């Protein structure tokens, strides 16, 4: 054991928190826009959209990471467009790429509780709103969404928690650059590889207690959802 | 302006709704949509409001199509108010914000909300949430909310169904005044006879998805079975209160006086439901004509139905009597005969009506 070593890889922890928070900040508006057609839309191909958005739940993260790596590459259209817009920035092995990947993989975690909450809003309230002159968007923002705040909050917490611990995609897209793309879960992997078991215990226990607290809070939110 | 509706709608396990009606939107009036549960009344309201889409037919306002073929004006642009059975108030908003919901930002700031709150008697409760209100208060808020944007027409789906009796009667009494203050015509769904009679200016009777009869409530309900399990029917007439004594009302129907039990309350106009089995017939009146509820009548029609016969009478107003067919033969009744009708006071149900109805 090295007495000079820090209790934990603090730069990795800070990066994890920053990544997860930024992802949630972008997820909330994006998810709110996507939840509407999923909860209330009636259109052809809705099942296809649902399946596509839920894919990250079952797909090995490395598979998603692989495709993202392919499409983020500096010679890919997306990578070139990004370079053009940012003046030479790259998506691969950068925080921006990591953020987009985290966003995509966390979308279903955010959407599922929100769509479930929206679906349980009393239909007549939406109808009442429309007879009072409010179109779909206004009704969604003024009635459905405020009544689904628990689902929205639960989704945001889940996405944040999952964003903190994501491993596969982050490793594929971001690599393992200390201070830039090395998150806590990757730091844990490194610590175990280096047989630094005490540091590994600290990291693992921190992630474990964090996950437990998060699940406890969402369970608490759901238990109080009025029926 | 005139709203013309002629629509069809079929649900998987409901009746085929095939209804045609017209509503005059220029003049205030309450039209009752009356019929047994499950006959399609609510569906018809939903089709008119735009909450449900017809399979075919059309809905138009003075020639402007609200629904025709694939064209449809969405519910939020029809300016048709809707009061749901149990209010459907927004649980996350206060009484005042519920009422202001259909108003634009500038109108909401004006006195409209305060005026409506005062008018429905909820002053002081502006900041309460719907969960803290009684059933009657909730329906008042629902009504105020529907009326706030001054819709062209307001549709009410059994608005008193979720209330206990005293609350329902109280609100029924106030409803007319609230609608009238803004001159907003209304279409109200009910399966309750007394409600239809106390509120309605006009009545559409619905049966198995169709509108089968239209007219004044008393005319539509006359001759209609009072209860489903009862072969007796009723005569419904308008009356004016001319006196009250010892729990009895003295009522004037045309030029005839009738006595009936007083339901209580302060009113001077009423509709009377007279059960036909409570009307007996006599050849010669043994008592002087002035005796209570002895009416001189002429037989208009005899309708023999097995052991029972319905005798349609004219005694200054139309009246029906249900007698046994053998009694009818004993009395040797013939169309055109003059006869005495004895109306049991207990066979008369008095339903108070607002002055202007």
How would the blueprint of this fold be written?
The complex is a heterodimer of chains A (227) and B (357).
Chain A: H1 10-40, H2 46-54, H3 61-72, H4 77-86, H5 95-119, H6 123-131, H7 136-147, H8 149-165, H9 168-174, H10 184-193, H11 197-223
Chain B: E1 2-10, E2 16-24, E3 30-34, H1 41-49, E4 56-61, E5 64-68, E6 71-72, E7 80-83, H2 95-100, H3 105-109, H4 112-119, H5 135-147, E8 153-157, H6 165-182, E9 186-190, H7 193-199, E10 202-207, E11 210-215, H8 217-221, E12 234-245, E13 248-253, E14 256-261, E15 269-275, E16 279-282, E17 294-305, E18 308-314, E19 318-324, H9 325-330, E20 338-343, E21 348-353
Parallel strand pairs in B: 3-9, 3-10, 7-8, 8-9
Antiparallel strand pairs in B: 1-2, 1-4, 4-5, 5-6, 10-11, 12-13, 12-15, 13-14, 15-21, 16-20, 17-18, 17-20, 18-19
Task: Walk me through this protein's architecture.
- With 227 residues, chain A is mostly helical.
- In chain A, 74% of the residues lie in helices and 0% in strands.
- Chain A is built from eleven helices and no strands.
- In chain A, helix 6 (123-131) packs antiparallel against helix 7 (136-147) and helix 8 (149-165) packs antiparallel against helix 11.
- By secondary structure, chain B is of the alpha+beta class.
- Chain B folds into two domains: 2-217, Rossmann fold, CATH 3.40.50.300; 234-353, Beta Barrel (OB fold (Dihydrolipoamide Acetyltransferase, E2P)).
- Chain B has nine helices and 21 strands.
- A six-stranded mixed beta sheet of chain B has the order 7-8-9-3-10-11, sandwiched between helices. In chain B, strands 2-1-4-5-6 form a five-stranded antiparallel beta sheet, covered by helices on one side. Chain B has a five-stranded antiparallel beta sheet with strand order 14-13-12-15-21.
- In chain B, strand 10 (202-207) and strand 11 form a beta hairpin.
- The mean pLDDT of chain B is 88.
- Classes of the chains: A mainly alpha (227), B alpha+beta (357).
- At the A-B interface, helix 6 and helix 7 of A face strand 7 of B.
